[in-house]
Amino acid sequence: MKGLPEERAVCLALYIIENNTTVRKTAKKFGISKSTVHKDVSERLKKLNPSLYSQVKAVLDVNKSERHIRGGLATQKKYALKKSAEQENS
Predict the structure, then answer these.
(1) CA diameter of the chain
(2) Which of 17, 26, 32, 61 could make a disulfide contact with 36, Cβ separation 3.0–4.6 Å?
């Protein structure tokens, strides 16, 4: 996603709010890096549109507070798949 950083920041913020998504998923959707998404919605947006920034910040704070749970679930899934693959090979 090319274009003006200010327009991109607003577009990314709206996407995050509407879809209640993470920085990582947003970056993948728009084909840009996580650091670009983070910079746009945390630094640029704060100056451009403080009310939109506060809405995005609320979503990102929830994501941050839940990330250890998602990480644990991903690890659990990884080892469950590994165990089932080993059982198939036996």
Answers:
(1) 59
(2) 32
Residue 82 to residue 51: CA distance in whole angstroms = 46
Query: Per the structure block, which two tokens stand in for 35?
Result: 């650091």
Residues in the chain: 90
Residue 2 has pLDDT above 70, yes or no: no
Average pLDDT, the chain: 90
Q: At what angle do helices 5-19 and 50-89 cross, to 10 degrees?
A: 60
Task: Give me the helices (H) in 1-90, please.
Answer: 5-19, 23-30, 34-39, 45-48, 50-89
Residues 77 and 45: beta-carbon distance below 8 Å: no
